[in-house]
Amino acid sequence: MTNTLKISKNTRETWAYGFFGILVFLFMWQLACLYTNFGKIFPTPVYSLRAFLEAFIKPIGKYTLLGHIAISLKRVLIGYALSSVSGILIGLAMGHSKMIHAIIYPIFSIIRPIPGIAWIPLAILWIGIGEPTIYFIIFMGGFSQMVMNTMDGAQHVSKELIGVAKVLGARENQIFRKIVLPYCVPYIFTGLQTSLSTSWMAVLAAEMITAREGAGWLILAGMQTGRIENNVIGMISIGGVGLILASLLRDSERRLCRWSVRSR
Amino acid sequence: MVSTKPVTTDKTIIKLENLSKSFQVDQGEALILDDINLAIEENEFLVLFGAGQCGKTTLLKMLAGLESITDGQIVIEDKPLVGMDPRVGMVYQTTALFPWLTVMGNVEFGPKARGVSKKERREKAQYYIDLVGLNSFEKHFPVMLSGGMQQRVGIARAYCNDPEIILMDEPFGHLDAQTRYMMEEEVEKIWEKEKRTVIFVTNNIEEALYLADRIVILTECPAKIKKEYKIDLPRPRNLVSPDFLELREEISALVELREGAE
Predict the structure, then answer these.
(1) Any idea which fold A43-256 has?
(2) With 90 as the cut, is the pLDDT of residue A10 above it?
(3) Cβ contacts of residue B195 below 8 Å, gap of 6+?
(4) Cα(A219)–Cα(A11) distance, rounded to whole angstroms?
(5) Where are the domains of chain A?
(6) How far is A170 from chain B (nearest CA, A)?
(7) Predicted complex ipTM
(8) pTM across the whole model
């Protein structure tokens, strides 16, 4: 009881410190705008905040701010879902079967270090400008991380636990479902975390180059039209959405992996 | 006293006949178990005792079907043992619980894998969870339990699968002395209540004397049967009774003598 109380007090203090940090940051931003040349090329925080609130009602380009974010989110979720599902399946297969590993790993290890955004030119040439290209770029951004993490889990499944299951009467076909799969879950979540942040990066890069809407387009358009406040709005929303996505994922990991030491 | 041939009675459940095990190593073969002959009676509490690191666990793994047999054979109820056998259950030194399953999930794992109906296996698992004193911990994950409690789960899991023979591989080796005494009492109580043949490996002489009907003393590498002691002291045993202490002296001396000679 005293323990939980102490923790919640600590959390409150941490929040207070964090809030204080943000205030200091905004204050220095305001000072810099008022008293240095920075003000000529950059809007003040007060102006940015007003523009931010306005952007919820007044469209920038084709959509309001929420519309742009929704479009980016939709793209990310489609690309991310595709890369996650296929990455988990291929990772499990590579980790579980030595033969599949031997076949796929060499080619995979060449593709793996290529960042998702390096595929942009090729994707445009192959698929053209449009939604599928953007999905493809996001897919390439998260796919290798999903494969690597899942494979890592499947390769390191405890031999002892497999033995235990067999002694208890589990058949060969039950071992995969009852031991290998649950063993991989924390590894899969690690993959989902890193892959989510690279997917979010990939969608922005793709939108900067091939789209007329979305959060990525918004920051680029802000630069091209000389409306820096749009750029600031876009960047803040990108940060916010990224943060929300990551914490949603962390929460679901905590709920699903209560058994794991790592998630506590 | 050293038996060369297993003396079988009609209550014999396991026979080890000329059992040997060697591992391939860089320089050739390393002999781990050397010509073990042993007959184990139904419901006997047999302790394999030896100071060395060699052989005891391997012998248990062979009985569990986790290690191959190099030479000789293991016969359970007149049938030679081939691989895993549902009549054999095991409690592990490391507890080896499935971390993603709750206490209930771990205990009911065996029956569930074998397709026992939910109602039946839940009832059974609950019985063994209660028996090891973990009532109200059914929904806890292993990571939330202490070492002693984790090993209780391991014991319940082994019993719940209905084996006739339970192998225990230094199950309390990682526990502190106090918890260890408690667990030894617990194991004895469970064994009195739910009679099974238990083969228990330990290198703790007090633990061996407290639990065993018979102690089989193994030599160090390669492990051979050095001597057997039938322990007739009344249960539960008093750790400081003169008889207990005398046996303890004698066996300690025997094991140390061997080490001194090396």
Answers:
(1) MetI-like fold (1.10.3720)
(2) no
(3) B43
(4) 34
(5) 1-42, 43-256
(6) 5
(7) 0.86
(8) 0.83
